[in-house]
Amino acid sequence: MSSGDNDVIRAAGCVLWRRSPYDDGLEVCLVHRPKYDDWSHPKGKLKRGEEALAAALREVEEETGFQCAPGARLPTTRYVAGGRPKRVDYWAAEATDGGFTPNREVDRVAWLSPTAARHRLTQPRDKSLVDALLSALHLA
């Protein structure tokens, strides 16, 4: 790790998906964060010594209430947050069990079709992750 890597905020998350209970279509879970009034994929910062995938699965459960089975690695996003570079590693993850309860960080979740999810996401960089999920699931 070069000395420049110490300044990078490390985070991880998942593009959480399930088969619709109504029509078996693909649904993507988005989280609404009242602090930022935005819609995004569940993600969060790594704890000291934590592996990225473990952090991603922990954040999904903390933010959505769902356990999930991780799948394909998705593209990493990089951007500047609060004047510092941030790197977020993502995985596709199928929701396996659980249920949402509003909390301090996330007040709502939405299970949406890929097209609706693309439209609802606040950040353009998050929209491409929906396409990456479809590609990983061989649905693109």
TrEMBL record:
Keywords: Hydrolase
Domain Nudix hydrolase: 7-135
Segments crossing the lipid bilayer: none
Domain of life: Bacteria
A GO term, aspect molecular function: hydrolase activity
PROSITE patterns linked to this entry: NUDIX, NUDIX_BOX
Enzyme type, top EC level: hydrolase
A Pfam family this chain is assigned to: NUDIX
Keyword Hydrolase part of the UniProt annotation: yes
InterPro entries according to UniProt: NUDIX_hydrolase-like_dom_sf, NUDIX_hydrolase_CS, NUDIX_hydrolase_dom, Nudix_hydrolase_domain
EC number: 3.6.-.-
Protein name (database record): NUDIX hydrolase
